[in-house]
Amino acid sequence: MRYGLFSDVHSNLEAMTVVADALKKEGVQEYFCLGDLIGYYSNPVETLDLIASLDCWKIVLGNHDAGCIGKTDLTRFSGPAADAIRWTQKQLKPHHWEMLKSLRLREEIGDIQLVHSSPFQSEEWHYLTKLEDVERNFRYFQGFICFFGHVHKPFIAEQKMDGSVRILEEHELVLQKDCRYLVNVGSVGQPRDGNPQTCYAVYDTDTQKLSIKRLDYDFETTARKTTEAGLSDYLAQRLRTGK
Ligand SMILES: [Fe+2]
Ligand SMILES: [Fe+2]
Description:
Number of strands: 12
Radius of gyration: 17 Å
Number of helices: 8
Shape: globular
CATH topology: Purple Acid Phosphatase, chain A, domain 2
CATH superfamily: Metallo-dependent phosphatases
Largest sheet: 6 strands, mixed
CATH architecture: 4-Layer Sandwich
Strand order of the largest sheet: 3-2-1-11-12-9
CATH class: Alpha Beta
Bound molecules: fe (ii) ion
Structural class: alpha/beta
């Protein structure tokens, strides 16, 4: 099976369009979305409809999605993020509310786990950035591999049989059967690793090849539309720097 994975779209239609086209060309058979479909940018309606058209096998709930539907308090967000969620709430149609309300915090497909923030206390929206936190989280999921998002910085962490964990340099490799993996698939709509290109992943269970890929997209259009919608200039600016 060939899976296409993406996360943290945040209503960025230009980036999601590029990723959806790329995943179709990759010949993926099933799609997994790791949450934060909305928030920050100005095309929630079109972006949710595009994601719905992919007929994803699984989509997990992100903190911005949870904030939008009232499952996470908006005081937990920065000012611009909370403002964007309130703005988004005014745009959504009934079928978008239904879609967001149907999402769960965690999903499991055989040996594969999906979560937005972290296997440990997924509902608390922890950020898995430090190695010690990544190490600890290997104890909180079953199976071979856990995909997640939320951090907006792609990386692959590998745990060997002796329990040791390291962050791999590579973003493309063949997974080893005697290891386990925690994989951040980066962000479609607001990369924060210093590279403004949009990001997605492909995982082929036949070959065990995992690839995290980057592509150019028209972030100037997204930034312009952000400002025109009255959303934060700061949110527009970080698309240009990828930070
Ligand atoms: Fe996010
Ligand atoms: Fe998030």
